[in-house]
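Support reply, case 0932

Customer input (verbatim):
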Amino acid sequence: MDVKIEVISATRHSEESFWNKSALGLSLRRIGFDSKIVPRISFDNRKGLPAIYNEGIKNADENSYLVFIHDDVWIDDSFFTYRIVEGLSNYDVIGVAGNRRRVSKQPAWAFINLDFVWDEKINLSGAVAHGQYPFGNISFFGPSPANCELLDGVFLAAKRISLLASNCSFDERYDFHFYDMDFCRTAMESGLRLGTWPLSITHQSGGAFGTDQWKKTILYIWKNGKINLH
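Our regenerated output:
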């Protein structure tokens, strides 16, 4: 396969610390045998993820496949490149977990309200492992691949050419919360097809759902109409 997979991520680690201590850095070293994978990491970062991801889209090679991923993710899949290429041969944007539908004022891909009520299982797709070390305990949400309207922002991938052709990017009014929800809506409105794809990762975090900053952000959005999350 004559492709380039550009892995775009942001970290508060220094460059040395990232490669020697972070889950993503250690994972990329492990699969470093694959010359198709090109890390694009923003070290000592203090910017919001959308700004970093948009810079990645802008500066990537023309025909690259782009992976947007958090720095606290272990890549467990040795066939990482093949999963990306397979997935983006079927969808314009892929993720590892998502929801087949969306509802009004949905605060996260898996929850339908601020009480964190899970959507019905029939609407969910994909799987993500969790733990501090690789190959953590697996949270299975539903069969994958599947057409989705919302994807978990822990991992997203798309072809650069598809994003540019549809004028699809990340909204920089967000920082670290809700950018994925907004991006998925933007992608669908741009005519892109979203779906989950089987790919093994372990996320060290369970997500920021329900934290004070998370609640403050979403209530501000709804109250002020800063960004429409209908």
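We compared this against your earlier run and they match. Two observations from our side: DSSP finds seven helices and 13 strands in the chain. The first strand starts at residue 5 and ends at 10. Please reopen the case if you see a mismatch on your end.
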